[in-house]
Amino acid sequence: MTDTGKTTIKLVMILAAAGADVHADDATRRLVVSIPDRKIALIEAGRVVKVYPVAVGAAGTPSPHGSFHVASRVVRPTWYQPGKVVGPGPANPLGTRWIGLGYKGYGIHGTNIPLSIGKAASHGCIRMRNRDVEELFGLVQVGDGVELVSEVSPELARAFAQGPGSTVSPAEATTPAVSDGGDGQ
Fold first, then answer.
1. Distance between CA 96 and CA 108 in Å, rounded?
2. Residue 181: is its pLDDT beyond 80?
3. Torsion angle, alpha carbons of 32, 164, 16, 53, to 10
4. Does 19 score more than 70 pLDDT?
5. Which structural domains are found in the chain, ordered by start?
């Protein structure tokens, strides 16, 4: 099997893991991030609605894995780091939207470095192209479940490979442990 085939299989496993812990009133909508595939899927009622490419944490600052939920949504966020504040605008590392995961400064956000998409380049957050995170922002609500998975089931890989319209069963969900790191990038 090729590396691409193995990656696709891993991604399907991730989507299957996504059904574990959803906090929203509408528990049928969730996001699944495949860390190894560097993709995020919006899933509603067991169907993949949209898949986007993302950047994930670099080797030294990996993205956490586990079950989270959308804890906040911010238009034109401000980036805060010790000794540095970057307001909304083209220099902001968070881009145009912030979707907070309710875990130690981690989130899904835009970027001022679009060439980083598809790479392991962040400080642990999930980066998206600004146009993609703006679209996703309009499709999710506070409370929606978010799974960041580092291992992919065959079902999840199949769903990512087939894209929108494919199905993901929450019955095969597994929830990996949460790992630390990150600083809002």
1. 11
2. no
3. -40
4. no
5. 3-172 (2.40.440.10)
Positions marked active-site: 109, 125
**Tokens of residue 169, six digits:** 């069963």
Question: Which residues are CB-neighbours of 184 under 8 A, at least 6 positions away?
Answer: 79, 80, 81, 94, 105, 106, 107, 123, 125
Structure token digits, residue 12: 């399907």
Closest by CA to 127, choosing from 167, 99, 91, is: 99
Structure tokens at 87: 């307001």
Total-model pTM? 0.77
**Which of 15, 22, 20, 98 lies closest to 49 in space, CA to CA?**
15
Burial of 58 (0-12, 13-18, 19+ CB in 10 A): middle
